[in-house]
Every structure is written in structure tokens, then in C-alpha cells.
Amino acid sequence: MLRALLIEDEPLAANRLEKLLLAQTELPLTVVAKLASVQEAVQYFREQPLPDLAFFDIQLGDGLSFEIFEQTEVTCPVIFTTAYDTYALRAFKANGIDYLLKPIDDEELTQALKKLQRLRAGAVKRASAPAVADQSLQLLQQALQQLQNPAGPTYKNRFVLKVGEHLRAIPVEEIDFFYSFEKATFLQTADNRRFAVDYTVEQLEQLVDPRRFFRVNRGYLVQVDAIQDIIHYTNSRLKVALRHHQQEEVLVSRERVGAFRAWLDQ
Q1: CA 155: distance to chain centroid?
Q2: Is the peptide bond before 103 cis (omega within 30 degrees of 0)?
Q3: Nearest CA to 13 among 39, 37, 34?
């Protein structure tokens, strides 16, 4: 049975991936650990036996998972998972055998595990060095093809909401942020209107384009153009000033500051 390591800073995403892995029949797997940060991963690879396979979420709370390779040796196969499609080539250069876009599709996960099987079979047969080089070149070519012909997930363009006796379609580009309040979820528009939505903030994070929206904490999913100012706050956190929003402070969770900075800098 292969030993798999999961590095993912969103507990729901980590639990979902674990369930997908345990339910699949392509390879018998057991999850040896679930880690949530670059720091935890570096410590694990320095102190624990090497897993047979690792899943790396690219954007973690304290930085990009590529930093793990800079701080310790990682020689096991790695499958990268991310909501972004901008890191494919870099992922394949960093020991990656595949690159899965969130939300992870069960069939794509199965194909990634089949690829691992083929690579392991080639290792058992002691493939020649030229064959390994050809295989690496093929992986890079696949990454380039993915960048040139992206087939990533589609995201919602609008939300259809019930307003009294009417239905109203709110285009995503008109939404400043989503937030939770008293067990309900709302969206606020750029012209300072508020509407209730039938989703949780966690669900909305999977429905909107992650290049435009970022979940700064458990209760707020903000759109980049709605951010008017970013202020350093206590305990290494950041405070975000949003357009038309003065009801409460919106703080970037300490564990998400690194990913937030990377999102702003993309």
C-alpha cells in the first residue's frame, strides 16, 4: 500500500482529497499525514520517512509550496493541486508528475494515479537515462500545451437571486465581496447594495474565479478591485479596507497572509 502525504491549508479541501483517494481503486493508498503549511512540510521531510507520493497545494498560508523544495530535499513524486492555472510549468520542474485544478475532478485524479503507476513500472524496469530524459521532456511539453490550451474549470458569470417577487441577475464583475453574517451569506455590489445568497462562503470560494476573488478569512471573500487599502495589523495580520464597508474590520487571517500577498502579486 502506497503512503501518501497531503499538504493543503484548507481543511475541507484536505478532507475531500483524502476521501477521493481512499475511495479510488486505481492504487491502494493510505494517507500518512495532512499538513497545512510550508513550515510543517519542511519539518516533515527532514524528520519523517519519505512518502511514496505527495499532494502539494501550491498556495499555502505561509507561502508557495515551491519553497519546500528550496528548504529541504523532496525526491518523491508530487502531484500539485491549485485553484490557479498559472504555475503548471514551474510545477513540472519541481518534481511534479501532474497538476490538478481545484475543485479536483475524480476522473482527473484517477488519470494522475495511472501516470504514477506508469512511472513506477518504468522505474522497476530500470529505464535507461535517455528514456527518463524523454519522459521529462514529454511532461514539460504537456505542461506547455496546457498553458497554450487551458482546459481549466469554468466559474460563475452571474448570480440569480430572489428579490421580493422578482429574480435578479447580478454579474460577478459587479460584486465587491461576499460575507457571512448571523448564519446567512450576503454579497455586496460595487454600488453598495446587499443581497442574500443561497451559498456558504466556502462554496462560493469554489464558484468564483480565484484570480479575481480571495478568501481573506472564514467570513469574507473579497474581489481585488474592491480593496481600497491594506494596513499592517497586530500579530502579523493585515487589515483590508473595502469599498462601501465600514461595519466591521476585515482582517486577513495570519495563516493566509502569505497566500494573500502572492494573490495580489500575480
Answers
A1: 15
A2: yes
A3: 34
Angle at 228 between CA 224 and CA 234, to 5 degrees: 100
> For cell 479510488, what's the residue?
24
Q: Rounded to 10 degrees, what is the CA torsion of 24, 30, 34, 38?
A: -90
Strand partners, 57: 81
Rounded to the nearest 10 degrees, the angle between the axes of helix 106-124 and helix 129-148 is: 160
Q: pLDDT (tens digit, 9 = 90+) per residue, 82-97?
A: 876 555 555 555 557 7
Q: List, as one string, the DSSP characters of 78-141.
A: EEEEES-SS-HHHHHHTTEEEEEESSPPHHHHHHHHHHHHHHHHHHHTT--HHHHHHHHHHHHH
Angle between helices 106-124 and 11-23 (to 10 degrees): 60
Judge whether 258 and 62 are in contact, CB under 8 Å.
Answer: yes
Q: What local confidence, expressed as pLDDT, does residue 152 receive?
A: 52
**Buried-exposed string 149-182: b where 16+ CB fall within 10 A, e elsewhere:** eeeebeeeeebeeeeeeeeeebebeebbbbbbee
Measured CA to CA in angstroms, residue 45 lies from 7, 63, 65, 212 at distances of 12, 17, 13, 33
pLDDT tens for residues 217-235? 999 999 999 999 999 988 7
Instruction: Retrieve residue 108's grid coordinates.
Output: 482527473
Residue carrying C-alpha cell 484548507: 10
* pLDDT recorded at residue 128: 42
In the chain, how long is the greatest CA-to-CA distance?
A: 70
Backbone φ and ψ for 169, nearest 5 degrees, come out as -100, 120
d(CA 254, CA 140): 35
Beta strands 238-242 and 227-232 are: antiparallel
